[in-house]
TrEMBL record:
The keyword Hydrolase applies. SUPFAM superfamilies: Composite domain of metallo-dependent hydrolases, Metallo-dependent hydrolases. It comes from the Bacteria. Pfam families: Amidohydro_1. This is Amidohydrolase. It comes from Brevibacillus borstelensis AK1.
Length: 395
């Protein structure tokens, strides 16, 4: 079906501008026409977007399908069967679509359920967002996220794990360069997989035309990951000038996930979050904000992600993440680009999605109001299209 949305404000994330009364014509093959004025072309279905804003479907670059956002999600992960995890992932996928998030980059799910879920969505068995899936992360023995991961020690074991995940159909490899908040007995600042171990996984991903993502909170682990050649540093909590310069020289993306620790520390003491998690998160929140500002000032490429699935971090908090990024100095329209075109670029999908341009997938989000003036208006969803099909419609 050929559709037309007219008289609508369009967010042009390529040129960082707004088109005030634009027209977009699209169908299931993709975006057909984009114009800054009226378009006389007849469509099968037309919609007057006066007072609304049309932008590319949002991309959340850091989610964990199957993780339940409970106070201690790894406890749940240990108990869930593969079927439990799959049902949960399907439910969460629908929540992402409802929030206008048409693509998710999943960076860790037990049993490789995210890969199976991706396949089910692509085959039309279930409705959900586009899924860019890592399957199980690769971690050192006892490392961060080990309840849902492949444990591997030394270059040979890590290489084997990397090849196994690629064989299973992973779109990217997720690696743990440091400890983390949610894994009991690990410290967020401590390095885990070594630079050599990280490098061999990056080599295997590169050979297969795939990308890599490294969980990295502490400075030494962050630098190990950048030097090893990872595509994205996830969190990047402690950055110094050298780390930032390395990221710029290597073209490394930062996916900051500011919302994750913020949500943990916002909860009342009776919330059920283990004291260990609070103790580990507290020292890093302000440092994380400072590191984000440093990366922003120096021009590090930033893509937006939420770490959905961590405590109280339910699908759909991407607008809140963008608001935090804006509060730390990133212009609102640039935060939107971080959740669209830059997000697509870190997945090497920028030629297919991430902006409203003729020839790209018709993944579109229509919202009330103007998110450049108020980012939280991204939550005022009217319509969501994926591949030109209407997935969500609120009157």
């Amino acid at each position: 079906m050929r559709r037309k949305i007219y008289n609508v404000r369009i967010i042009d994330v390529v040129h960082l501008r707004q088109i005030e009364r634009g027209t977009v014509v699209f169908d299931e093959s993709g975006i057909l026409h984009v114009s800054e004025a009226g378009n006389a072309e007849v469509a099968d279905w037309e919609f007057d977007g006066t007072g609304m804003t049309l932008l590319p479907g949002l991309i959340d670059c850091h989610v964990h399908l199957g993780m339940d956002a409970s106070p201690d999600p790894f406890r749940q992960i240990r108990l869930d069967s593969a079927a439990d995890t799959a049902f949960r992932a399907h439910q969460q996928g629908k929540q992402f679509l409802e929030a206008g998030i048409t693509t998710v980059r999943n960076v860790g799910t037990r049993y490789n359920v995210d890969i199976s879920y991706r396949n089910a969505v692509e085959r039309g068995f279930v409705e959900g967002p586009r899924v860019y899936a890592s399957g199980q992360p690769i971690v050192m023995t006892g490392g961060h996220c080990h309840p849902m991961a492949i444990e591997a020690d030394g270059v040979d074991e890590v290489r084997k794990a990397a090849r196994s995940q690629l064989k299973a159909g992973a779109d990217l490899l997720k690696l743990m360069a440091t400890g983390g908040v949610l894994t009991k007995g690990t410290e967020p600042g401590s390095p885990q997989l070594s630079e050599a171990e990280l490098r061999c996984a990056c080599e295997e991903a590169s050979h297969a035309g795939k990308t890599t993502a490294a969980h990295a909170i502490g400075l030494e682990g962050i630098k190990n990951a950048i030097r090893a050649g990872v595509t994205t540093v996830e969190h990047g909590t402690v950055l110094d000038d050298e780390a930032v310069q390395l990221m710029i020289e290597n073209g490394t993306f930062l996916v900051p996930t500011l919302i994750a620790a913020t949500l943990i520390l916002r909860q009342p003491s009776e919330s059920g979050v283990p004291e260990e998690f609070v103790r580990k998160a507290e020292p890093f929140v302000q440092i994380h904000r400072e590191s984000f500002r440093k990366a922003l000032r120096h021009g590090v490429k930033i893509a937006a992600g939420t770490d959905a699935g961590t405590p109280f971090n339910i699908p759909g908090y991407l607008a809140d993440e963008l608001q935090l990024m804006h509060e730390e100095g990133m212009p609102a329209i640039e935060t939107i680009r971080a959740a669209t075109l830059q997000a697509a670029a870190c997945m090497k999908l920028e030629d297919r999605t991430g902006s409203i341009e003729a020839g790209k997938w018709a993944d579109l989000l229509l919202v009330e109001g103007n998110p450049v003036e108020n980012l939280l208006s991204l939550k005022r969803v009217r319509q969501v299209y994926k591949g030109g099909k209407l997935c969500v419609h609120h009157r």
